[in-house]
């Protein structure tokens, strides 16, 4: 299957789905489409609530595309690549509609950042998470503020430092990353749809004001994530990082 980002609107519910054949990884074009689609859905008066999901039945999101990471040749190009993740997080943060996350499987790096930027996140028991950035010579700088906001400093530190460890869905729920976890995608989808229907019939103005309150204190993220993207764009050029990524690709 070809990669895609699509938006489906039904009865006030806007469902954004992305897919990439490499375990739903996130090349620059997918990131740009996601940020734009989230922004457009937020502006669409026909949409009262948004569901964010990925295609397929296995991984939710494998994070950054290794192919694009290895093709970065200078700091400006590197900054622009990591800005793709910043733009998705900021689009979700500034979106006036509640975003429901639907996570069917494992999430790595940027995928963890993306689900952290949702307002209410459902997952299956298969949805382990990992911040693997340090293992390839960089760090979860851009996604860090979103993840830390959800799980707190201690849990974010654990994920950042132990970069090769998968933290299971129960751990993620205990730390606040997920609100509910389910035995299967079918059970999860029932609850996702139930909440989406309830919110689609709720007062849009009240939900918009609540979202502002819930995200209070993040007003500086446009600048913060820009700085983090610049830092990441420089680190990815180091010989250490290039060698580490090459080893990961050859596994």
> Given this structure, which CATH class is correct?
Alpha Beta
Q: What's the count of strands?
A: 10
| Biggest beta-sheet profile | 6 strands, mixed
Total domains: 1
If you compute it from the alpha carbons, what radius of gyration comes out, rounded to the nearest whole angstrom? 17 Å
Full CATH superfamily name: 2-enoyl-CoA Hydratase, Chain A, domain 1
CATH topology (level 3) name:
2-enoyl-CoA Hydratase, Chain A, domain 1
SSE string, helix = H, strand = E? EEEHEEHHEEHEEHHHEHHHH
The spatial strand order of the largest sheet comes to: 1-2-4-6-8-10
Q: Give the overall silhouette.
A: globular
Mean pLDDT: 96
The span between the termini is 24 Å
Query: Please, how many helices?
Result: 11
Strand composition percent: 15-25%
Low-confidence stretches: none
CATH architecture: Alpha-Beta Complex
Structural class: alpha/beta
Helix content: 40-55%
Account of the 3D structure:
The chain is an alpha/beta fold and 251 residues long. The protein has a single domain (4-200), classed as Alpha-Beta Complex (2-enoyl-CoA Hydratase, Chain A, domain 1), CATH 3.90.226. The protein has eleven helices and ten strands. It has helices spanning 28-43, 66-71, 75-94, 110-116, 144-151, 153-161, 169-174, 185-200, 204-214, 221-235, 239-249; strands spanning 4-10, 13-19, 25-26, 49-54, 63-64, 99-103, 107-108, 120-124, 129-130, 180-182. The strands form three sheets. A six-stranded mixed beta sheet has the order 1-2-4-6-8-10, with helices on both faces. A hairpin with a 2-residue loop joins strand 1 (4-10) and strand 2.
């Amino acid at each position: 299957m070809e990669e895609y980002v699509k938006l489906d609107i039904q009865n006030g519910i806007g469902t954004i789905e992305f897919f990439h054949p490499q375990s739903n990884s996130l090349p620059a074009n997918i990131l740009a489409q996601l940020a734009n689609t989230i922004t457009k859905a937020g502006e669409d008066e026909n949409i009262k609530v948004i569901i964010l999901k990925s295609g397929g039945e296995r991984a939710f999101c494998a994070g950054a595309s290794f192919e694009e990471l290895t093709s970065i040749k200078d700091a400006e190009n590197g900054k622009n690549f990591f800005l793709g993740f910043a733009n998705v997080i900021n689009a979700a943060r500034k979106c006036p509609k509640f975003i429901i996350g639907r996570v069917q499987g494992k999430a790595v790096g940027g995928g963890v950042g993306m689900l952290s930027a949702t307002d209410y996140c459902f997952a299956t028991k298969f949805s382990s998470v990992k911040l693997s950035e340090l293992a390839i010579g960089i760090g979860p700088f851009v996604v860090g503020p979103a993840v830390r906001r959800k799980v707190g400093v201690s849990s974010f530190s654990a994920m950042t430092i132990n970069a090769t460890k998968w933290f299971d869905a129960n751990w993620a729920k205990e730390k606040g990353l997920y609100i509910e976890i389910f035995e299967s995608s079918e059970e999860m989808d029932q609850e996702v749809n139930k909440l989406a229907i309830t919110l689609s019939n709720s007062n849009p103005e009240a939900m918009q004001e609540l979202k502002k309150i819930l995200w209070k204190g993040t007003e500086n993220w446009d600048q913060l994530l820009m700085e983090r993207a610049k830092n990441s764009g420089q680190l990815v050029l180091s010989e250490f990082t290039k060698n580490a990524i090459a080893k990961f690709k050859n596994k």
